[in-house]
Amino acid sequence: MKPASDTPALGELRSAVIDAHRERKPLRLRGAGTKDFYGESCEGAPLDLAGYRGVAEYEPSELVLTARCGTPLSEIESVLAAERQFLAFEPPSLGGDPTIGGVIAAGLSGPRRAHAGAARDFVLGAVLLAVDGEVLHFGGKVMKNVAGFDVSRLLCGSLGILGPILEVSLKVMPLPREEQTLRFELPEAAALGAFNRWAGEPLPLSATAWWNGVAYLRLSGAPAAVRAARARLGGERLEPAAAQAWWRGLRSQGHALLGAARSLWRLSVPASAPPLALEGAPLIEWGGALRWYASELPASEVRRVATAAGGSALHWRGGVAGHRFHPLPAPVLAIHRRLKERFDPHGIFNRNRLVAGL
Amino acid sequence: MHAAAPEAFRTRRPGEPAPPDPDAIRARRGEVARMLASLLPADCLLSREEELRPYECDGLAAYREQPLLVALPRTEEQICAVVRACHALSVPLVARGAGTGLSGGAMPHAAGVLLSLARFNRILGIDPVARTARVQPGVRNLAVSEAAAPFGLYYAPDPSSQIACTIGGNVAENSGGVHCLKYGLTVHNVLSVRGCTIEGEIVELGGAALDAPGLDLLAITLGSEGLLLIVTEVLLKLIPRPERAQVVMASFDDVGRAGDGVAAIIAAGIIPAGLEMMDRQATAAVEPFVKAGYDLSAEAILLAESDGTADEVAEEVAALESVLRAAGATAISVSRSEAERLRFWSGRKNAFPAAGRLSPDYYCMDGTIPRKALGAVLRAIEAMERKYGLKCLNVFHAGDGNLHPLILFDANREGEWQRAEHFGIEILELCVSLGGTVTGEHGVGVEKLNPMCVQFSPAERAAFFAVKAAFDPPGLLNPGKAIPTLARCAEYGREHIRRGVVSHPELPRF
Predict the structure, then answer these.
(1) A59 touches chain B (CB under 8 A)
(2) What is the model's pTM?
(3) Where do the H-state alpha helices sit in B22-122?
(4) CA-to-CA distance for B468 and B472, rounded, in angstroms?
(5) Which of the 8 DSSP states describes residue A156?
(6) Residues of A in contact with B188 (CB under 8 A)
(7) pLDDT tens-digit map of B37-52
(8) CB-based contact A268 B216, cutoff 8 Å
(9) Residue B153 belongs to what H/E stretch?
(10) Which helix H or strand E contains B439, and what residues bound it?
């Protein structure tokens, strides 16, 4: 493993972190700022990571791309598209152009999540800027690696509380050769039943969604497999342009379908959970595993429903800082606290952003 | 190593602690046995010399240690009680599944309790609608797919030892198999882990839903070699069994060209379900014994499996044939029946036993490299065979860049084990220098502690200890495995060159 290149931009970041650690001044890690709204709170002086950018290494036949944290997602996607490859977890852009560091630190995944895997499933390695200014390499640029604890995957979704991700190596995948989207008019319960049934059959599924009485199903893969699945499933085929627009919209700001509600919830539940006892119609993604609700119900009520279904609820928009993420059980919280104390003893990095008090 | 290793080559290495005092061990055994006897039924505790002996080592027999005691609990409550007692008495705990591990990860601690999870062998439920299996850690890997088969589902990770190895062990090692390029490792196929912390508390990491709040503690637990938690239950993802599978077998007259063939397949946008390579020495070793129909005149053969619907497989097999021909394959055959497909695979799956027929002992390595370096690594291994005077067979998860060189030696011959060990370390250090890793799927255990000093800087190893301390503050879970101490690396470093100079030595670390 080679150390992250020692550029002036890196030198500045290291000095800023070392100074903040010495003076015990909290830092707020920031890329493109597309997720400023996301998380429990945003405290501290901004540490701008957008300037540490660029694709460091990309070899299509190795299926690995390594990029510095400030690289815009759009740049990575166009580099990959030129080789007919892509990020299979379809990171949400949230209406802007996030940096890859922000994408991985948030660990959010798009429509392909249930079939291709989550952001963390494609993380092969990461470089962490530790609080003492040390540059630490975890994982690597190979498909299989069990040397040492999997800190690079721990960093995915950590919202920066353990430090800035300077560089990340991701597994990339070939673009499917054929893609078709089918629509079916189905009520919610029937759509959930169909999603779970289809997922148990050898079909080339790559995404499912349900909104407003219509189930959407995307098939991706070898042309023969997509054609055979379509013939078997029926449904009405969306024109390619309309299909692309639908999935792109869902990926970047799908929840916008629910309107500009003040209070928006993102419920992560088992895909097989029946329709939830919450008022209003949800937007459903991930074969039933992700359900969005615009709801003014008390947070405790929404959480009770999510927990009863075997999942958790995130107050995506609205809500009270410190109470947006689903609460953690005490022994799990204790492990979080000790990790934070070890990696960032003075609470410099993104204080309170993932867990209140850490 | 497949044969029992004689005491002669159990030598102390740099950085290893001195052997414990036998009188102190006996006294401690009595004390801990009295404590555990009050918590467990009599048939759940082993303490006599002859009862302890079978637990001395796992699949890597060169490393042995007798545990203080063996506990074989039956319930989660009993596990928690044993853990709490060990915590109170500061007794190390080593968890063990089937003992098939290849890196000494389940080797006992001389002053510790070996916690066997062999009795946790029940599949608690298969949910065909949610496509999940809830299992205890002692369930065998293959038993999950067998139980899921009536629903047209299976569990994807398939390590070669899947008949015997357990899900708990797979979680500890983040095990792979021959289908990982397309279907992922254990980390991609486990939805949640339930486990007992060193404080004796039960935690659930991950869940039946796809997202869980907080840090991804599930991801870091997978592959943590028993250093963070004692696993008591695992929720596995099941996937639909493909309608059809077919294997393309291609011969090459040069290992480098075979490596280029692998790159050409990926470059063509194909992700085969399995992509394996064997060199001439490996095919020569297995063919007389398995009769898989391998081309013995080839320098290397590639096995590429395609799976999916019948039409999809037909299309992909045709594409594989044309890519491999263009890459210079000298012969190509495609399996025409399920029996023939299994025969093509049988040679690859029997490579280890075949090595055992050729030589009294063998030492299996597990480095991973970027695929493009394959030809160079195989040529370097050839030169090392001459340097160390030992033969090496090469089997290779080519799609993942994961090498399994099998170094043949005879432990009864003076100096051969030491030569084999040095040969292995030289291969691993070469993997690191090419941007790879010292272990792709077998784990560090005790075996690869020294090469870990080469792969990671002191600050990186300190970060690993920080993770360890966050889960296990007293450091009692499988201590001395997976992460080498600074002292050990310092001693090892006197003989070997390391990467990494610590900058800002004035700053405190973790």
Answers:
(1) yes
(2) 0.95
(3) 22-37, 49-52, 76-89
(4) 6
(5) T
(6) 117, 121
(7) 999 999 999 999 999 9
(8) no
(9) strand B153-154
(10) none
